[in-house]
Amino acid sequence: MYSGGGRQRERHIDLTDPALFADDRFIDVLAHLREESPVHFHEEEDGPGFWTLTRHADVSHVYANADLFSSRSGMRLGGHADAVKAVADKMLIVTDNPEHARVRRLVGAAFTPPVIRTLESHVKDVVGELMDTTLGGAPCEFVSSVARPLPTHVICAFMALPRGDWDWIGRLTTEGIDSEDEEVRMAANTELFLYFTEVIEERRQKPGPDLISILVGAAAEAEASGEHPFSDVDLVVNLAGILIGANETTRYAVAGGLVALAEHPDQWARLRQDPELVAPAVEEILRWVSPAVHAMRTVTRQTRIGDQVLAPGDRVTVWTHAANRDPAVFPDAHVFDVARRPNRHLSFGSGRHVCVGARLARMEIAAFLEDLRTRVAEIELTVPVEWSPSNFTRGPLKVMARLSPVSSAATAAKDGDREDSHDEDR
Q1: Residues 31, 36, 38, 42: what is their CA dihedral angle, to the nearest 10 degrees?
Q2: How far is CA 162 from CA 29, 157, 166, in A?
Q3: Which residues are bridge partners to 140 per DSSP?
Q4: What span, in angstroms and rounded, lies between the C-alpha atoms of 130 and 364?
């Protein structure tokens, strides 16, 4: 059914077909490539083709060698060339050094451990408020109720945006990356850019402790020290990138994590009984769901991976989902195990381009799991889960679930703990 490696025409695999990713079929396809053709040339009907890498070692090699595998020409299949050109050397994910180091210092100023720790109480509050709407006997649509608004509410609060704008910002962020209509995507991104241009100017006049003020301040400090100045366009495209990254990974990990726990009741029981399993469960959900399915790089000079020679200009796709289920790295890789240690998943990338918001994403997922395990007794999926048909970022689009609460006494104890925490904060 499948051809071998090298530049042989492939008749049966089409990793550009969204329909392949609407269910679990793609997992078997990627597993076959990992086992039989781990460095595989994928033909395209209307393009030059691209290499696919599916082993953990090869994917890690690409991430670790950013000088050899460039990001500035685009980091996903199907990206619009003009859109990539417009943000190249400006948006963090499509830069190479030295620009990448410069932009990462700017964006990273808002995601240091001390800054992220200040958000912990707020993250827990957001989770608790959203979960309040799901508890009871009736099924709820979990993505729209919890998974989608959670990262949006957290990052919008971190940016100190008006509460009335949060849902609108979340909708524009989703449309800007997920809409199948190019005009809708362009309109959404244009609205976001105009919105942030105004907010940036406001924060220059009246700064605060929020994410946007931190970035504006870091840009001013860089310019004062003699660095190449950051324009408002630089700031805007990276704020958009932060929104996209925050929403996609956390939304799909939280929703996919709920599905995984519902489908593996033994693991749900273990997590409920042992609070020490929350941290490893976060990592296992990230590995299992793998919200970032693939990333793309462009070869800068001739190199070899396995038995294949890659030429300058070749596009290389690294399939994170496949790497995260590589049995060479993960014993019983096909098993969902909330106690898995070690867990060297690549869901946040690796090397120079490791996700700058990984700490915040982990905090959000951990807060969700802690709330879930203490307030929910049973998780029941009431209809089949609908998954996003995407080879780039993938997760549940719709999850109808019944979350049965624990006893009222236990719930009251949980609420009391939350109030005590608020008293300490005050």
Answers
A1: -90
A2: 45, 8, 7
A3: 401
A4: 12
Q: Report the distance separating Cα 288 and Cα 321, nearest Å.
A: 8
Give the closest residue to 387 by CA, choosing from 10, 23, 18: 23
In the structure, what pLDDT confidence band is assigned to residue 173 with cuts at 50, 70 and 90?
confident
What does the DSSP assignment read for 350-396? -GGG--TTHHHHHHHHHHHHHHHHHHEEEEEE-SPPEE---SSB--E
Distance, CA of 352 to CA of 103 (rounded, Å) = 12
**Looking up tokens 């549940």, which residue turns up?**
396
Chain-centroid distance, C-alpha 81: 22
DSSP, collapsed to helix, strand or coil, labels residue 53 as: strand
**Contact in structure between 110 and 211 (CB atoms under 8 Å):** yes
**Residue found by looking up tokens 């289920």 in the block:** 325
34-39: long-range contacts, CB 8 A cutoff, minimum separation 24: 34/322, 34/326, 36/2, 36/4, 37/2, 37/3, 37/4, 37/5, 38/5, 38/306, 39/5, 39/305, 39/306, 39/307, 39/308
Strand ordering across the sheet containing 294-299: 39-42, 50-53, 315-319, 294-299, 69-70
Q: Where residue 407 falls among pLDDT bands split at 50, 70, 90?
A: confident
Q: Please, which residues have CB within 8 angstroms of residue 204's CB and are 6 or more apart in sequence?
A: 216
Average pLDDT over residues 6-26: 78
Instruction: Say how far apart CA 144 and CA 128 lie, in whole Å.
Output: 15
The residue ranking higher by pLDDT, 294 or 87, is: 294
For residue 8, the 8-state DSSP code is P
**What is d(CA 27, CA 280) in angstroms, rounded to the nearest whole number?**
23
What are the pLDDT digits (tens) for 184-216? 888 988 899 999 999 999 999 999 999 999 999
User: What's the rounded mean pLDDT across residues 132-146?
Assistant: 92
**Euclidean distance between the first and the last CA atom of the chain, given in angstroms as a whole number:** 64
Which of 206, 191, 251, 194 is CA-nearest to residue 397? Answer: 251
pTM, two decimal places: 0.91
What is the DSSP pairing of strand 140-141 with strand 396-398? Answer: unpaired
- The confidence band for 424, taking pLDDT boundaries of 50, 70 and 90, is very low
Task: Give CA–CA dist 272/305, Å, rounded.
Answer: 44
